[in-house]
Each structure stands twice: as C-alpha cells, then as structure tokens.
C-alpha cells in the first residue's frame, strides 16, 4: 500500500514538471533596474521581472527555457540536454534569492554542476564567443513522504542580461582602421544598435572589438557606437586619425555625411568610378591641367551645390547610374576636341541629371555626334540648360539619342553650330520632351522627337525643316512673353523678365 502511495505521489510531482508561475506584481516585486547599488548575496532582493518558477524531477524529462534544455540527472547535477551539448553551468554559491545573482563569472564553467538548495547558478548557451545566459536559483528540494529527494523547485530568468559596462568609453583609431579590443567590466550580452557607416564592430563575450575602414579623408572622423541590452545602453566615442594621403576632404560617403570635395584632385578622384556614395562640392573647382580617361561609371549622388567646374577638358563620366545635380560646367577655353561621340556629363545617362548647366565648345570630327549633356539618355534630364557651340556630324543641345525611353523636361538650350551639322535641337527622336525651348542660329530640327508637348523655338533665327506636333515657333518678341508658354509653371520652375528676356530656370537664380 505504501509503495502504491509513493508511486502515486511521484506521478503527481512529475505532472508538475512544466507547471510555471510568473512573479506576482502585486507582491511588491520590482524589475531589476540595473542601477549601481551593490547587491550582496545575503540582501533581501525581490525576484526580477519575468521570474518563472518550475519543477525539475531527478532523472526525469528535460525542462525547456527557450534555447536552454536542462535536466537533473540521477547524481543530482544540472546537466545539458541539447543535441550538441552547448550549455555550460557555473555555481554562484549560496544566495538569498534569484535577484541576488547579478553578474556572470569569467571562470569556473563546466558541463555539470551539483544541485544545492539556496544556491544560485548561471547557464550559458552557444559557441564561438556568442552566448545567451540564464540565471536560476534552487528554492528547495522536492521530497517524497519518506524524505527521499525527487527533484528541485527552481526559479529562473532567461535570458539574463546584466548591466553592460566597459573598461573605457572612448576609442582612438589609426587612419588605417586597426581594431581595438575593449573588455567589459562584467560579462553581459549586448547588441550594437547604431554606429557610423565607416566604423566596424565585432562581438566578444568578454568585450567588444571596434575598428574602422581606412580613412580616406583629410579630416579626423568622430562618431558614436551604441550598444544595448534589456538593462541599459552604453556609448563609445570613436575617433579616427585623418588620412596622410586623403582622397576627399571629409565625410563618409553616406547621405547624411557625404564626401566633401574641396580641391580639383579630390574632384578628379570620383571620375574614375572607383568611389561610390554621396558627394558634395564645397567650393568652385578648376580642373584645368587635369586629365582622366573619359570617366568611369557613377553610381552615387553628386550635388554641386551650384558651384562651378571650370576648365573641363573631357566628359565627367562614361555612364551615370545615379543622381547628378547642381553643377555649373564651363568647358576649357580650347573646348573639348575628341575623335568620337562626345558630351560633358556622361556618355550614357541611366540616372537623373538636374539643375545643371553647360557652357562651351565641343568638337567631334567626321560623322560623330556631340551634345551638351549626354549622348544617350535612358532616364531623366530636368531643369537644365546649355549654351554650347557644337561641331560634329549630328548635334543636340541636351541629349542626342534616346536609349530605352529617356525624358527631357523643363530645359532650354542655346546652340551655335555650322551649316553642315545635322541639328536635333534640344534632343533627338524617341525621347519624351516636355516644356522646353531652344534658341540659336541654325537650320534643322528644333525639337528632334515626335513625343513632345509645350515646346518652343525662336523662328526668327532657327529654320525648322520638320514640323512636329507639340513644337511651336515663336517670334523673338513672343519668346519674351509668359503668355506664350502654355502650361508652364512660372511659380515654382520658371521665371521671366517680361518683354525683356527669355524664360530662365529659378534654380539657377538662387
């Protein structure tokens, strides 16, 4: 009879293995605030927020705490029940409760640890210095009616993330960006929640490695690295020495902190296509005497901020896949003389070109083509103007050829050329051209596309050899009247000195 009663009691206790109860907030329990008050093992400390109570049966089934799979074996030791045995244990010793376990030991880890009532423990799960921690406290034994040990009542919190604190909060890096190791005051876990684009971090279970990409700018970099866990945040101030051979003036190439260009050499550096990102001009740049191989592909953003690029001997880029705006291009006095198709900004435009002007001479011999901004336009050119002298087999003020549905809008061009050039005016066929006008003295096609609307040309100085819907010839006086330009935005885009001059773009008069 006693034997049957004992078996019944064991079965009842085993059924409680997965029974859990969260800490009752009505008992005055407060969350672990992670403040600087030292907690001693014998202090009376409330259970931390999220405390769960569970029962272990010796030599019974494992208990799951998220990634932690733990059991008590026949020898009354806590053991690892994960497939690859990824859990280590550490005994804190006798404490008054779960809230008295406030730190993670650096030494003394093992695959098993003896179960002792009123003792605190830490378990860690993981490998390769990537750990998750749990803290737990043995409340008491579970015993039979005869006093035999059946298991243990355990309180735990998982994950356990003590307050993060490091031996220092500032890091100085060399220009080449070598990593620096910073140890934690006490072991914890953390995540990097923010850092500069140029900064690199590596997690270590006893600290953090902070480094950087090579500094390619002339100024010292300064930034913040912020790490965080459930208890608190910690901030490092990171500085990096300036480059001895700077490529750019300052910045890190992000939209928030673009590379700043201050010298001709720094400007020429972006033309190779080796550097992508965001760039801004800080001042006017004279590239006279500099040469480059007709530019590489551009995949970032270049904001000229209305500064001039003077002395241009060649086009800037081969292909624009990004955004180029705010440039005031002045070609070198001798012009661009090239034995191939030539333009100033790029050969192919696959991106956006806006608020950019071009002045000067482009000469291409034979049957080649020349145009003010790009040869092929596959995307969009807007709010631009050119005042150009063009000599080639075929010429255009903005873009001569369409390439997969290009658009030109809110642009104008003044073209000087010779009688033996075939002139496409603003741009050639296939492009969608809206709200543009062209002036100059030539015979040809003022707007060389059949897909256009609200476009105009001076019919006193330009002889049109092709009439196209959406293109209207105006007298010189009519060209100086706002009422001549149907559906144009003279509030935000255009402005005109009525009866005095042709329309101009507001973006060039800031």
Short key terms for the protein model shown above:
510 residues; mainly beta; Immunoglobulin-like; Pectate Lyase C-like; 3 domains; 6-stranded antiparallel sheet; 2 helices; 43% strand; elongated; disordered N terminus
- Number of structurally distinct domains: 3
Radius of gyration: 37 Å
CATH architecture of the largest domain: 3 Solenoid
Report strand %.
Answer: 35-45%
CATH fold naming of the largest domain: Pectate Lyase C-like
The separation of the N and C termini measures: 101 Å
Helix content: under 10%
Major sheet details: 18 strands, parallel
Give the structural class. mainly beta
Provide the residue-averaged pLDDT. Answer: 90
Helix/strand layout:
Blueprint: H1 2-14, E1 21-22, E2 52-57, E3 63-65, E4 68-72, E5 77-80, E6 87-94, E7 112-114, E8 119-127, E9 130-143, E10 149-157, E11 170-173, E12 180-183, E13 191-194, E14 199-204, E15 207-212, E16 221-228, E17 233-240, E18 259-261, H2 264-270, E19 278-281, E20 285-286, E21 297-298, E22 301-312, E23 317-320, E24 323-331, E25 336-337, E26 346-349, E27 352-354, E28 357-363, E29 369-371, E30 374-377, E31 380-382, E32 385-391, E33 394-396, E34 399-402, E35 407-409, E36 412-416, E37 422-423, E38 432-434, E39 437-444, E40 451-453, E41 455-458, E42 462-464, E43 471-474, E44 494-495, E45 504-505
């Amino acid at each position: 009879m006693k034997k049957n009663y004992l078996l019944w009691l064991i079965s009842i206790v085993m059924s409680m293995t997965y029974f859990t109860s969260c800490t009752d907030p009505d008992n005055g329990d407060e969350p672990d605030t992670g403040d600087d008050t030292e907690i001693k093992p014998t202090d009376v400390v409330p259970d931390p927020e999220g405390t769960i109570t569970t029962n272990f049966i010796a030599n019974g089934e494992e208990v799951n705490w998220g990634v932690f799979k733990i059991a008590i074996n026949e020898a009354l030791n806590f053991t690892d029940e994960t497939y690859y045995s990824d859990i280590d244990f550490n005994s804190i010793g006798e404490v008054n409760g779960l809230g008295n376990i406030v730190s993670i030991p650096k030494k003394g880890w093992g695959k098993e640890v003896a179960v002792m009532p009123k003792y605190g423990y830490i378990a860690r799960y993981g490998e390769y210095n990537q750990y998750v921690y749990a803290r737990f406290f043995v409340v008491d034994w579970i015993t039979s009616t005869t006093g035999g040990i059946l298991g243990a009542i355990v309180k735990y919190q998982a994950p356990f993330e003590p307050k993060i604190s490091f031996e220092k909060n500032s890091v100085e890096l060399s220009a080449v960006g070598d990593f620096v190791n910073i140890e934690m005051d006490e072991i914890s876990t953390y995540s990097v929640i923010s850092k500069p684009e140029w900064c690199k971090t590596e997690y270590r279970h006893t600290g953090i490695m902070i480094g950087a990409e090579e500094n390619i700018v002339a100024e010292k970099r300064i930034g913040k690295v912020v790490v965080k866990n459930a208890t608190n945040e910690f901030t490092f101030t990171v500085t990096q020495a300036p480059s001895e051979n700077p490529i750019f003036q300052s910045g890190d190439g992000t939209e928030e902190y673009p590379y700043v260009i201050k010298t001709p050499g720094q400007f020429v550096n972006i033309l190779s296509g080796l550097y992508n990102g965001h760039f801004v001009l800080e001042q006017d740049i004279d590239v006279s005497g500099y040469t480059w191989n007709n530019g590489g592909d551009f995949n970032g953003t270049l904001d000229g901020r209305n500064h001039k690029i003077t002395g241009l001997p060649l086009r800037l880029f081969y292909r624009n896949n990004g955004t180029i705006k705010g440039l005031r291009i002045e070609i070198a006095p001798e012009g661009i003389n090239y034995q191939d198709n030539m333009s100033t900004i790029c050969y192919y435009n696959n991106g956006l070109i806006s608020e950019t002007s071009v002045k000067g001479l482009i000469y291409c011999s034979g049957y080649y083509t020349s145009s003010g901004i790009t040869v092929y336009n596959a995307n969009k050119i807007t709010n631009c103007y050119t005042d150009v002298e063009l000599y080639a087999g075929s010429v255009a003020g903005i873009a001569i050829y369409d390439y997969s549905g290009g658009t030109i809008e809110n642009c104008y061009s003044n073209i000087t050329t010779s009688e033996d050039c075939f002139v496409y005016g603003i741009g050639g066929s296939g492009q969608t051209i809206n709200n543009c006008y062209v002036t100059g003295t030539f015979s040809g096609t003022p707007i060389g596309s059949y897909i256009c609307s609200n476009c105009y040309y001076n019919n006193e100085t330009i002889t049109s050899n092709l009439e196209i819907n959406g293109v209207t010839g105006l007298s010189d006086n009519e060209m100086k009247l706002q009422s001549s330009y149907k559906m144009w935005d003279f509030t935000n885009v255009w402005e005109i000195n009525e009866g005095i001059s042709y329309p101009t773009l507001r973006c060039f008069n800031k």
